[in-house]
Design brief:
This protein has 2 domains: 111 residues, Sandwich (Jelly Rolls); 105 residues, Homeodomain-like (Arc Repressor Mutant, subunit A), CATH 1.10.10.60. It contains 10 helices and 10 strands. It has a 6-stranded antiparallel β-sheet, with helices on both faces. A 4-stranded antiparallel β-sheet has the order 2-7-4-5.
Length: 244
C-alpha cells in the first residue's frame, strides 16, 4: 500500500481552525500547548488524537509538536478508529495518559515507536479490492489536472455514486478530499525538501491549476498557507514513515 502518514515536527508554530482527510496524532516534545477541537477549548495539554474531518486548531508558540497525519484506510488508521470508538477525539493532559492509550511500556518514546507497537496488526486486507485499486490509482495519478471520478469508477466497474459511497465508507473521506490530501501531502514534502522550487512550480507539479488554488486548500486542510510553510521550512522537519 501507499504511505500511511505525513509526520511533521513543528517548532513553535500556531495553526488556525482546519480539518483534513486523515486521523491526526499530536503531542509535545517539551512544553504543554492549547488546542481547540470542534467547539471545545483545551488548555495545557500534552497531546490529542482526532478522527478525519474533525475541526481543530493549535496554539503552540512555546512548544515543539510532533504532528502525525494517518490515512484512514491504513492498518494504523483502522487501529485508531477502534481505539476512539464513537468519540471523535481523545485529549491527553499528560505523558502518562498518552502512554496508557498506546500501551507503551515506558514514558520515553519517539514518533516512530507509535507506529511500531507490536500489538497492532495489519488490517488492510479488510478493505474492498476496488477501494485499494482506487487508492493506488489516486496515488499514481494525483499530478494530473484531468483527474476524473468517472474514469476511476469505470476502472473498478462501478457507478460513480457506488464508488463514492464505498470509498467514503472505507476511508472516512470523499474521493475529492482524499485526492486533495495526496496532492497537499506531496506539495508539503516538496516545500520542505526542495528550496529551489517556488510555490507556483510546486502547485503545478502536484496537480493544482495554480498557486491560488493550492493556497486555498492548504489553508483549509492544514490551517497554514503554502507561503507560511515555505517561510517556516527551517522550523518544520518532514519525518517520512512508510508501511505496507
Amino acid at each position: 500500500m501507499n504511505k500511511l502518514t505525513l509526520t511533521l515536527k513543528a517548532y513553535k508554530s500556531n495553526v488556525v481552525i482546519h480539518r483534513h482527510s486523515a486521523f491526526q496524532i499530536v503531542f509535545t516534545e517539551d512544553n504543554l500547548f492549547h488546542s481547540q477541537i470542534e467547539n471545545n477549548n483545551h488548555k495545557n495539554i500534552f497531546g490529542f488524537v482526532i478522527k478525519p474531518q474533525v475541526a481543530h486548531a493549535c496554539e503552540c508558540s512555546n512548544s515543539t509538536l510532533i504532528v502525525m497525519n494517518i490515512e484512514a484506510h491504513s492498518f494504523f488508521g483502522k487501529y485508531l478508529s477502534q481505539k476512539l470508538g464513537n468519540s471523535n477525539s481523545k485529549v491527553f493532559l499528560d505523558n502518562l495518559e498518552f502512554v496508557v492509550f498506546f500501551n507503551f511500556k515506558g514514558k520515553n518514546f519517539t514518533y516512530s515507536d507509535i507506529l511500531n507497537t507490536n500489538h497492532i496488526e495489519n488490517s488492510v486486507s479488510n478493505i474492498d479490492q476496488r477501494t485499494i485499486i482506487a487508492l493506488e490509482y489516486i496515488s499514481n495519478n494525483f499530478q494530473s489536472d484531468k483527474f476524473s471520478i468517472k474514469d476511476l469508477a469505470e476502472r473498478v466497474f462501478l457507478s460513480t455514486s457506488r464508488l463514492s459511497f464505498l470509498f467514503k465508507k472505507q476511508t472516512g473521506s470523499s474521493i475529492i478530499k482524499y485526492l486533495l490530501w495526496i496532492r497537499l501531502r506531496n506539495a508539503i514534502f516538496l516545500m520542505l525538501t526542495d528550496n529551489k522550487k517556488n510555490i507556483t512550480t510546486i502547485a503545478l507539479e502536484c496537480g493544482f491549476y495554480d498557486s491560488s488554488q493550492m493556497n486555498k486548500y492548504m489553508y483549509q486542510m492544514f490551517g497554514i498557507s503554502p507561503l507560511k510553510f515555505k517561510q517556516k521550512s527551517d522550523l518544520i522537519q518532514f519525518l517520512d514513515v512508510e508501511a505496507n
